[in-house]
Amino acid sequence: MRNASAVLLVALSCSRGPPAPAPLDTRNDACAQCRMAVSDPRFAAQLVAAREEPRFFDDIGCLRDFLRAHASLPDGAVAYVADHRTRAWVRAAAARYTRDDALATPMSSHLVAHADDASRAADPEAARGVRITVAEVFGPGGVPDAR
C-alpha cells in the first residue's frame, strides 16, 4: 500500500489542476477521524492535496468532523465523497446529499451522497431520506474544493 501511495503522490504532485481522488483500499485504509476501517465504499469520503497522503473517511460525518477540527488545510485540497449507489468518487462540493435517520452508516451520521439527482433517484435507500445541502452537511464554509 505504501508503494502505491508513493506512486500516487508523485503522480499527483506532477499533474496540473486539482488533485484527483485516490483509489480506496478497503482492506487497509483507516478513517483519518475515527481510525475505523474504511470497509464500505458506499459511505466513504476522502481529502486529497498535492504532495500529501490522501486521507480517507469511513463516513461523511467523519469528514465533516475532521474539517471542523482542522481549519488549516493544504493549499489546493479537494474533498471527495462516494456516490452511495455507484461508489464512484464525486467532488464533495458538487454532490447531492441525503439524510435518512433510518439508514445505518458506519459512524451513524445517516448521510449519503450521490453524483446527481438521477443517481439519487435510482437509489432505493435514498428515496425515503431528506435531501440536504452541502452547507447543511459541512457548514457555511462548505468543503475544500481547490477552486
Fraction of residues in β-strands:
15-25%
Low-confidence stretches: none
| Rg from alpha-carbon coordinates | 14 Å
SS-based structural class? alpha+beta
Given the C-alpha coordinates, what overall shape results? globular
Mean pLDDT: 91
Q: How many β-strand runs?
A: 7
The order of strands across the largest sheet is 2-1-3-4
Helix % is 25-40%
End-to-end separation: 30 Å
- Helix-strand string: HEEHEEEEHHEH
Number of helices: 5
Largest sheet: 4 strands, antiparallel
Give structural notes.
- The protein has 147 residues and is of the alpha+beta class.
- The chain is built from 5 helices and 7 strands, in the order αββαββββααβα.
- It has a 4-stranded antiparallel sheet.
- The chain is globular.
Explain briefly what this protein structure is.
By secondary structure, the chain is of the alpha+beta class. The protein is built from 5 helices and 7 strands, in the order αββαββββααβα. The N and C termini lie far apart (30 Å).
